[in-house]
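User: Show me a protein chain along with its predicted structure.
Assistant: Here is one chain, sequence first, then structure tokens.
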Amino acid sequence: MTSSALIADSGIQKRALSYAITIHKLFFDVMESKQPADNILANYFRENKKHGSKDRRIIRETFFGLFRWWGWIHQLQPTSQQEVDSNWLKALVQTASFEQHAWLPIINAWAEVSALPDSTLEKARIQDSPLSCANVFADNNELHLNQLLPESFWQHLEYSTEQSELLANIMQTRPPIWARSQGINHQQAVDSLISEGVDIIDCQYFANALSLGEKSLNLTQLTTYKQGKLEIQDLASQVIGEICQPKPNELWWDTCSGAGGKALQLQSLRNDKGKLVASDIRLNALSELKKRANKAKFKNIKVMPWVSETLPVSSRSFDGVLVDAPCSCTGTWRRNPDMRWTDDLSNLDEITGLQLDILTRSAEAVKQGGKLVYATCSLLPQENEQVIKAFLEQSPEFELIPIVHPFTQAEQDMVTIMPYEANSDGMFVVVMKRQTEKA
């Protein structure tokens, strides 16, 4: 990676330019490869032990900040993918201004080397909102909040102006680390975490949920986590288990369990009383689920992978079936801002076809009177309401069961959790019941 005729005179300017080169490489590695930013950054730090904690923080927070604000920045600054030039340094200054980063010597050095006027930076720092701050850099560009998420996202939605602004604003912030206690008295878990210096905010919605704040944590050093008594799970994801309401005597099937976050929650909610089968096509994920279940001392989770299109479990035998379907993950864009610019929403028809297929196959396992729960971490109706409508049209033996939105208390046939409602990710969930056949 080269720097285009940029001259760094002082030590702090040379250090700032070094950061700029590193962040440029990482950023465009993500944009080119479409690999998760978390993975690319983790691999970089693993291979480059030279960085201290302050270096890592500047690189990490600027890196993710760029993805959060890229909808504006790529309009404000024509940025070269081939080289680090003055425009790239200005983009870093803008990111730091929007995020209100605290490393002023580095930010000032980026501004100096890029020849950004002192008056511009000073004016940006006194603005009372990111939009007004952006307009300091904008010249004649017209910026608005919706640009912070791709047009391909908005074109699938029919939100009011107020909803759109609420969503765009919350997507620019980092959600807290949500967790839940399991297999332990909740207050004991809270007390243990407080004793280890973790900032705890108890959740008003669910008895076992808690926020661990926004700071990075070394989870492996926390006693409750090492003992399997604490699971990291976003609050919106926890909604799914709470809505499933599994009973101790029921048999449940988690059809797309992945590494098992929701499977573990279902068992935790009923103290591991009652059997649960977890399935996925990814054997590595199921192996991780086994490890987590063993750590939590859960004995009643059985793993049965999908190995073909044939149902891996017995038909008409489950009291509850959870289909946490693969999706576009637009509801997690707040936590993973890089996905806004690397994911392609043009293949939604293919995704929704897969979702309907998985839901239809999985429904065969629900016994008479049993529950079928469909969930995604998407905000797009095409993956949510429209899939359910298509399923019910071809499966009249199922009917919707109204559910209470846990954050608004509104009774709805289908619930979409918006990230701004309780400071979480976004999620969709619906509950259906196989009607009892009439004699």
